[in-house]
Design goal:
single chain, alpha+beta, seven-stranded antiparallel beta sheet, two-stranded antiparallel sheet
Length: 169
Protein backbone atom coordinates (compact mmCIF):
# COMPACT_ATOMS: atom_id res chain seq x y z
CA UNK A 1 0.00 0.00 0.00
CA UNK A 2 2.80 2.44 0.91
CA UNK A 3 4.41 1.79 -2.49
CA UNK A 4 1.23 2.93 -4.28
CA UNK A 5 1.09 6.10 -2.20
CA UNK A 6 4.71 6.92 -3.07
CA UNK A 7 4.08 6.25 -6.78
CA UNK A 8 0.89 8.35 -6.68
CA UNK A 9 2.65 11.30 -5.03
CA UNK A 10 5.55 11.01 -7.48
CA UNK A 11 3.08 11.06 -10.38
CA UNK A 12 1.32 14.14 -9.00
CA UNK A 13 4.63 15.97 -8.57
CA UNK A 14 5.65 15.06 -12.13
CA UNK A 15 2.31 16.32 -13.46
CA UNK A 16 2.67 19.57 -11.50
CA UNK A 17 6.19 20.06 -12.88
CA UNK A 18 4.97 19.50 -16.45
CA UNK A 19 2.15 22.02 -15.96
CA UNK A 20 4.56 24.61 -14.56
CA UNK A 21 6.95 24.12 -17.49
CA UNK A 22 4.11 24.42 -20.04
CA UNK A 23 2.79 27.60 -18.36
CA UNK A 24 6.27 29.16 -18.24
CA UNK A 25 6.92 28.34 -21.91
CA UNK A 26 3.55 29.81 -22.98
CA UNK A 27 4.06 32.96 -20.88
CA UNK A 28 7.57 33.46 -22.26
CA UNK A 29 6.33 32.97 -25.83
CA UNK A 30 3.55 35.52 -25.28
CA UNK A 31 5.99 38.04 -23.80
CA UNK A 32 8.38 37.59 -26.75
CA UNK A 33 5.52 38.33 -29.17
CA UNK A 34 4.24 41.34 -27.23
CA UNK A 35 7.47 42.95 -25.98
CA UNK A 36 10.10 41.64 -28.39
CA UNK A 37 13.50 40.48 -27.24
CA UNK A 38 16.05 43.23 -27.29
CA UNK A 39 16.86 46.30 -25.26
CA UNK A 40 19.50 48.57 -26.81
CA UNK A 41 22.95 48.66 -25.25
CA UNK A 42 24.06 51.53 -23.04
CA UNK A 43 25.49 54.24 -25.34
CA UNK A 44 29.15 55.09 -24.92
CA UNK A 45 29.82 58.27 -23.04
CA UNK A 46 26.88 57.93 -20.63
CA UNK A 47 27.71 59.68 -17.38
CA UNK A 48 27.40 57.62 -14.18
CA UNK A 49 25.29 59.58 -11.68
CA UNK A 50 24.82 57.08 -8.83
CA UNK A 51 25.98 53.58 -8.00
CA UNK A 52 24.79 51.57 -5.00
CA UNK A 53 24.20 48.07 -3.71
CA UNK A 54 20.48 47.41 -3.95
CA UNK A 55 17.82 44.69 -4.08
CA UNK A 56 15.86 43.96 -7.27
CA UNK A 57 12.26 42.88 -6.68
CA UNK A 58 11.57 41.87 -10.27
CA UNK A 59 9.62 43.33 -13.16
CA UNK A 60 5.88 42.88 -13.58
CA UNK A 61 3.70 43.13 -16.67
CA UNK A 62 1.17 45.96 -16.49
CA UNK A 63 -0.62 46.79 -13.28
CA UNK A 64 -0.65 43.14 -12.18
CA UNK A 65 1.61 42.71 -9.21
CA UNK A 66 2.03 38.98 -9.81
CA UNK A 67 2.55 38.58 -13.57
CA UNK A 68 6.33 38.57 -13.90
CA UNK A 69 8.30 39.72 -16.94
CA UNK A 70 10.66 36.90 -17.97
CA UNK A 71 12.80 38.30 -20.79
CA UNK A 72 16.14 40.13 -20.96
CA UNK A 73 17.49 38.64 -17.71
CA UNK A 74 14.83 40.38 -15.63
CA UNK A 75 13.04 37.36 -14.18
CA UNK A 76 15.09 36.62 -11.04
CA UNK A 77 15.04 38.72 -7.88
CA UNK A 78 18.20 39.36 -5.95
CA UNK A 79 20.95 41.55 -4.55
CA UNK A 80 23.31 43.42 -6.80
CA UNK A 81 24.49 46.81 -7.98
CA UNK A 82 22.13 49.52 -9.20
CA UNK A 83 23.48 52.23 -11.51
CA UNK A 84 21.80 55.40 -12.68
CA UNK A 85 23.39 56.96 -15.75
CA UNK A 86 22.36 59.87 -17.93
CA UNK A 87 20.88 57.34 -20.39
CA UNK A 88 19.48 54.50 -18.32
CA UNK A 89 18.98 52.47 -15.18
CA UNK A 90 21.18 49.38 -14.98
CA UNK A 91 21.15 46.52 -12.48
CA UNK A 92 23.70 43.73 -12.20
CA UNK A 93 22.82 40.83 -9.91
CA UNK A 94 25.60 39.28 -7.85
CA UNK A 95 27.55 36.58 -9.69
CA UNK A 96 26.18 37.58 -13.10
CA UNK A 97 28.36 38.92 -15.87
CA UNK A 98 26.10 41.48 -17.53
CA UNK A 99 23.60 43.99 -16.17
CA UNK A 100 20.14 44.49 -17.60
CA UNK A 101 19.17 47.99 -18.69
CA UNK A 102 16.09 50.19 -18.75
CA UNK A 103 16.61 53.13 -21.14
CA UNK A 104 15.51 56.41 -19.53
CA UNK A 105 13.74 57.39 -22.74
CA UNK A 106 11.39 54.44 -22.17
CA UNK A 107 10.57 55.37 -18.55
CA UNK A 108 7.11 56.89 -18.06
CA UNK A 109 7.38 57.73 -14.37
CA UNK A 110 9.01 56.81 -11.07
CA UNK A 111 6.75 55.72 -8.20
CA UNK A 112 7.26 54.33 -4.72
CA UNK A 113 5.48 51.72 -2.64
CA UNK A 114 5.96 49.30 0.25
CA UNK A 115 6.26 46.19 -1.91
CA UNK A 116 6.49 44.90 -5.45
CA UNK A 117 5.85 41.71 -7.46
CA UNK A 118 4.13 39.97 -4.57
CA UNK A 119 6.90 40.74 -2.07
CA UNK A 120 6.56 43.12 0.86
CA UNK A 121 9.53 45.32 1.83
CA UNK A 122 8.79 45.27 5.57
CA UNK A 123 7.61 48.88 5.61
CA UNK A 124 10.56 50.26 3.62
CA UNK A 125 9.96 52.18 0.42
CA UNK A 126 10.50 50.46 -2.94
CA UNK A 127 11.38 52.55 -5.99
CA UNK A 128 9.13 51.48 -8.88
CA UNK A 129 10.22 52.30 -12.41
CA UNK A 130 7.19 52.35 -14.73
CA UNK A 131 8.34 51.95 -18.32
CA UNK A 132 7.04 51.20 -21.78
CA UNK A 133 8.37 48.57 -24.15
CA UNK A 134 6.67 48.16 -27.53
CA UNK A 135 3.44 49.63 -26.19
CA UNK A 136 3.32 47.36 -23.12
CA UNK A 137 3.72 48.72 -19.60
CA UNK A 138 6.33 47.14 -17.30
CA UNK A 139 7.10 48.00 -13.68
CA UNK A 140 10.48 47.22 -12.11
CA UNK A 141 11.08 47.47 -8.35
CA UNK A 142 14.33 48.36 -6.56
CA UNK A 143 15.18 48.76 -2.88
CA UNK A 144 18.09 51.02 -1.94
CA UNK A 145 19.22 51.74 1.65
CA UNK A 146 16.63 53.83 3.54
CA UNK A 147 19.15 56.64 4.11
CA UNK A 148 19.53 57.10 0.33
CA UNK A 149 15.97 56.40 -0.81
CA UNK A 150 14.87 60.03 -1.27
CA UNK A 151 18.11 61.00 -3.03
CA UNK A 152 17.74 58.14 -5.54
CA UNK A 153 14.03 58.82 -6.01
CA UNK A 154 14.64 62.53 -6.64
CA UNK A 155 17.52 61.97 -9.04
CA UNK A 156 15.63 59.30 -11.00
CA UNK A 157 12.61 61.58 -11.32
CA UNK A 158 14.85 64.46 -12.38
CA UNK A 159 16.56 62.40 -15.10
CA UNK A 160 13.24 61.02 -16.37
CA UNK A 161 11.69 64.50 -16.52
CA UNK A 162 14.57 65.64 -18.77
CA UNK A 163 13.45 63.18 -21.44
CA UNK A 164 10.10 62.97 -23.16
CA UNK A 165 9.30 59.23 -23.16
CA UNK A 166 8.64 57.63 -26.50
CA UNK A 167 5.30 55.85 -26.19
CA UNK A 168 6.01 52.93 -28.52
CA UNK A 169 9.03 50.75 -29.17
Amino acid sequence: MAVWIVWGLTGLMALALILILVYTARERSWQERVFGEGIPEEPRGAELLYERNAYYFGTTVGASSLRRYMLNGMSARGNGELWLTTNGILFKRLFEADPFRIPLSWVLRIEEGTGHAGKWAMGRKVIKVVWNKKGGMLISGFLVPASEHHRWLGQMRKEVSRRAPTRTR
